[in-house]
Model the fold of this input.
Amino acid sequence: MIKIIALTEAGNKLAHRLQKMLSHSEVWFKPKPFSEQVKNAFITGDSLIMICASGIAVRTLAPVIKNKHEDPPVLVLDELGRFVIPLLSGHEGGANNWGQDIAHLLSAQLVVTTAKPYLKPIYTVGMGCERNCPKEYLFTLLKDCLSQVNLKMEDIKSINSIDIKADEVALIELAKDLKKPFKTWNTTELGAMESLLSSKSEYVFNVVGVYGVAESAALYSAQKLTGDTSELVLIKHKNAKATCAIARSFPLSVLE
Done:
């Protein structure tokens, strides 16, 4: 659910204008008690558009902020709708991409303050699965993961896994159906990504030799494509038979 929060009459007009363009959205005009209402919406995972000073948003949300992997996206707009600022969860939560969409709807200026906003990132997917996993489990999970970070299938450069999955039929067919390269990497290559993982599984390490297949494969493949460091856009998500993570990196050539 999207909560559009306004504190002034002008902001309220903008909020209702936005509501007409955004499905699953609700306008809160001067909610009371303000701080508790906004914090509760944030805690429950609602995406927030706050039409107010950025300082108000920061002071209100500061006590409930966890981390960039768990917090919902938060945008701050001025009451005239001239500027859109992704305030929280810019990369991982999709606020940067969402902010771009909102700025387009309002013909506003997107103000991105996170690292390297002017470069076009390379996105890669890492996947792990049970042996002989049905392809449907992989496809459904991948679609869900892309949706969570506002990416489309065409944004993804490759699908990746560990080398013991090089003959996994469902992964091979998934990549073929989507017209994406399917690449696998050995434990030494994937092990180099250990410090970047969101969590480490001793069980997975004891079975395959790395602390996480999906995240490691996504991170390593993104790094290989650009020659630069990589980062997780979406930490490992899973269903009954598969895991999926999304990483990105920025081409070094753009900086040279």
Q: What stands out?
A: The radius of gyration is 20 Å. DSSP finds nine helices and eleven strands in the chain. The first strand starts at residue 2 and ends at 6. The chain has a mean pLDDT of 89.
